[in-house]
Design a protein that fits this description.
Largest sheet: 8 strands, parallel, barrel
Organism: Lacipirellula limnantheis
CATH topology of the largest domain: TIM Barrel
Bound molecules: calcium ion
Shape: globular
Distance between the termini: 44 Å
Order of helices and strands: HHHEEHEHEHEHEHEEHEHEHHHHHHH
Protein name: Spherulation-specific family 4
Pfam family, one: Spherulin4
CATH class of the largest domain: Alpha Beta
CATH architecture of the largest domain: Alpha-Beta Barrel
Number of domains: 2
Helix content: 40-55%
Strand content: 5-15%
Number of helices: 17
């Protein structure tokens, strides 16, 4: 992998983590008493985890799962753009705008307003261009890219109908698009859509920052097998689109399946062919909630949002657990951290892992004592966030 690609990955990861950090407070506020109960029960497994701590280093938190919406609907009043904007502080969302099989012929103020509102709420937007599997004249593609840059404040380009085979000149065609986008704006991402598995050369050439490697009906998703080379890259490099999936339960299963398959971006809809992308799914809010829940699990213990669960998550002067204890973080969050931290023992935190059944109480009490806090128990009604208990934010 080239240094440039690595740098872009870091930019992409840091953008994701900024989004995660922005959402941390909201996510934590949404956790229920049930979650508190589950956390306290987990104290019984702590001794086993201590053994793991001794042999491992700081644990890498997984990248957040992102929703990638082909938003091929016009932003008229009451359109699904409003529902996407309303959800943008709950889960990371990138919308693909597509005014007219591309940017269209004129700047559209309704798109300006919708895009600006969605981005102000935390969403990202990339602009649709098609490439006819390498047959569309390059100048037409780059002209579309330029129109997006001139008319809209967005975050990148979505290259549809991407080829997934050689020869080198086809790869070079897509690298030319990629290079043009990076010239137009080095911050812009390029998402390529072969719609199916592709060869690794498309990633290494490079031709895109991430790839949509599945676009098909729900019934084809469980049996889908990603290319073996995908495992060498971060999950944020891969996106799946699933349409014609009527079952909300299957949708949730597919989100988890995506995580298990090293896929960082997904969208599942019950809309069907000929155009499954001209509205949001009927289970949109359930999908947003499910992604937020998955991300809360993936980021548990990573209080400073840097993608790693380590001692800084306790000690960071503003974002660390100690600094936030009693405001938006409590004993259950410490146990999250303890479960996921696998680095060397340091400070007071690790030396106090107790035996069950008083595990939760003891762990929290010992850390709390070092902070001068006296009344913490394992009762979910008291370990839940103060903000939730007070009904404030
Ligand atoms: Ca439709
Ligand atoms: Ca961290």
């Amino acid at each position: 992998m080239s240094l440039q690609t690595l740098a872009e990955r870091r930019v992409s990861r840091s953008m994701m983590m900024i989004h995660l950090r922005r959402n941390t407070m909201a996510l934590l506020r949404r956790r229920s008493d049930l979650t508190g109960k589950r956390r306290c029960a987990s104290a019984a497994t702590l001794p086993a985890l201590v053994a793991v701590m001794l042999v491992c280093t700081a644990m890498q938190a997984a990248s957040a799962l992102e929703i990638i919406v082909p938003a091929y609907f016009y932003p008229s009043p009451g359109s699904p753009w409003g529902a996407m904007t309303a959800a943008a502080d709950e889960a990371p969302i990138t919308a693909i705008m597509n005014p007219g099989n591309g940017p269209g012929n004129v700047k559209d103020q309704n798109y300006v307003n919708a895009v600006n509102a969605f981005r102000a709420a935390g969403g990202r937007v990339i602009g649709y261009v098609y490439s006819s599997y390498g047959a569309r004249p390059l100048a037409q593609v780059t002209a579309d890219v330029d129109k997006y840059k001139t008319w809209y404040g967005i975050d990148g380009i979505f290259v549809d109908e991407m080829a997934n085979t050689g020869p080198a000149e086809r790869l070079n065609y897509y690298k030319s698009i990629y290079d043009h986008v990076k010239q137009v704006d080095p911050q812009w991402e390029v998402m390529g859509n072969p719609g199916t598995n592709t060869i690794e050369q498309y990633a290494t050439w490079p031709t895109a920052d991430r790839f949509m490697v599945f676009e098909n009906v729900g019934s084809a998703y469980p049996g889908h097998a990603p290319s073996a080379w995908n495992a060498k890259y971060d999950s944020e490099k891969f996106v799946n689109l699933v349409h014609t999936e009527a079952s909300a339960a299957n949708m949730v299963d597919f989100l988890n399946l995506a995580v298990s398959r090293n896929v960082g971006g997904i969208y599942v809809t019950d809309d069907v062919m000929n155009n499954p992308w001209d509205t949001l799914p009927s289970y949109w809010q359930q999908e947003v909630d499910a992604v937020a829940q998955i991300n809360a699990q993936l980021s548990a213990g990573d209080f400073n949002g840097d993608g790693v669960v380590d001692l800084a998550d306790l000690d960071d002067p503003t974002l660390g657990w100690k600094a936030r204890f009693g405001s938006d973080l409590g004993g259950g969050d410490f146990l999250d951290w303890q479960r996921r931290y696998t680095g060397p023992a340091g400070g007071a935190a690790i030396g106090l892992v107790p035996e069950p059944p008083t595990g939760c109480l003891g762990a929290v009490a010992l850390v709390a004592a070092s902070l001068g806090v006296t009344r913490m128990t394992c009762n979910p009604s008291t370990t839940k966030r103060k903000s939730a208990a007070n009904g404030s934010s």
